[in-house]
Backbone:
C-alpha cells in the first residue's frame, strides 16, 4: 500500500453489501491507507455491514437513516467525539419506489417524488452541513450519480430528476465550500449490478446496451469506480471541485457506435 490516503479519516455512507458501490470505494481507500467509518441503514443491513467494516479495520459503524435529521446528527456527533475531524465523505445513497422505476415518468406520484428527492438528493446537502464543521483543515465530499440525470434512460424516471438535482447540488456546494478548502464532486458511474440497481426495470438489458455501446466495450467494475473515487478523495485531485466525473467506459461520449466489423 502507498501513502495516498494515510492519515485521512472518512465516512462511507451507503454500504448495503459487498456489491455496493460504496464498498468498492471503501476497499480501494483502505488499500491506500485510509481510515474508515461506516453507516448502515437499519438492523437488517447492520449484519452485512459490520463484518465488511471489520475486514478493513474500521471501529466506527453507526446506524443512519437520512430521512431523519436526529439520526444524521447522531452520526456526526459520534465521529466528532471519536475522531474530532473528518477528511472525506462518500455519499452513495439513493431510493425511489420500485413501482415507479418501470414504465413512464409521467406516472410519478407526488409522494414518491418528494421521498425520492429527499433521500437521493437532499441527503447529500444534509450530511454536508454536518461534515463541514469537522473539516476545518479542508476535505473532500463525493456523491454518486448516473447518466439518467443528463439524458433519458428507460425506467430511470424520478431517479433521473433526483440525480439532475443532485448534480446541481454538487456545483452549489462546491461554490459554497471552496473557500474552506472543501471540494465537492460526483462520480457518474456506468450501470453496475447492485441491490439498488435490481429495482430498475430492464436493468439487465441496460447493462448489455452499455457493454455493446461504450468505447471500452465493457461495463465498469467496483474497483474501477474505487480508483476514480481514490483520485477524487485524495490530494491527487486538489485542483478539482464541482465536477461530475464519468466512470462509465466512455458511454456518455458516444452518439452512436460503429456497427461491429464482426457483425457486418
Ligand atoms: P446499493 O443498494 O448497494 O446502495 C444503496 C444504498 O442506499 C444502500 O446502502 C441503502 O441502505 C442506502 N439508502 C437508501 N435509503 C436510505 C436512507 N433512507 N437512509 C440511509 N441510507 C439509505 O446500490 P448502489 O448501486 O451501490 O448505490 C449507491 C449509489 O450509486 C446510489 O446513489 C446510486 O444511485 C448510485 N449509482 C448506482 C449505479 C448502478 O448502476 N448501480 C450507477 C450510477 C450511480
Residues:
Amino acid at each position: 500500500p502507498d501513502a495516498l490516503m494515510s492519515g485521512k479519516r472518512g465516512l462511507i455512507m451507503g454500504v448495503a453489501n459487498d456489491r455496493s458501490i460504496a464498498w468498492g470505494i471503501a476497499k480501494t481507500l483502505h488499500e491506500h491507507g485510509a481510515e474508515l467509518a461506516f453507516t448502515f441503514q437499519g438492523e437488517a443491513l447492520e449484519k452485512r455491514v459490520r463484518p465488511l467494516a471489520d475486514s478493513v479495520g474500521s471501529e466506527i459503524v453507526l446506524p443512519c437513516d437520512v430521512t431523519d435529521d436526529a439520526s444524521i446528527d447522531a452520526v456526526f456527533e459520534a465521529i466528532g467525539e471519536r475522531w474530532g475531524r473528518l477528511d472525506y465523505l462518500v455519499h452513495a445513497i439513493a431510493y425511489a419506489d420500485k413501482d415507479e422505476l418501470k414504465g413512464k415518468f409521467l406516472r410519478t406520484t407526488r409522494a414518491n417524488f418528494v421521498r425520492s428527492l429527499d433521500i437521493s438528493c437532499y441527503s447529500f446537502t444534509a450530511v454536508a452541513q454536518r461534515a463541514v464543521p469537522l473539516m476545518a483543515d479542508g476535505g473532500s465530499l463525493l456523491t454518486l450519480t448516473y447518466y439518467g440525470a443528463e439524458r433519458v434512460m428507460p425506467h430511470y424516471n424520478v431517479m433521473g430528476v433526483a440525480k439532475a438535482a443532485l448534480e446541481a447540488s454538487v456545483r452549489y456546494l462546491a461554490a459554497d465550500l471552496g473557500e474552506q478548502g472543501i471540494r465537492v464532486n460526483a462520480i457518474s458511474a456506468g450501470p453496475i449490478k447492485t441491490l439498488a440497481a435490481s429495482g430498475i426495470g430492464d436493468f439487465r438489458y441496460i447493462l448489455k446496451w452499455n457493454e455493446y455501446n461504450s468505447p471500452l466495450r465493457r461495463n465498469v467494475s467496483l474497483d474501477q469506480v474505487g480508483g476514480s473515487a481514490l483520485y477524487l478523495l485524495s490530494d491527487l485531485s486538489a485542483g478539482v471541485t464541482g465536477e461530475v466525473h464519468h466512470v462509465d467506459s466512455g458511454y456518455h461520449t458516444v452518439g452512436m457506435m460503429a456497427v461491429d466489423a464482426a457483425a457486418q
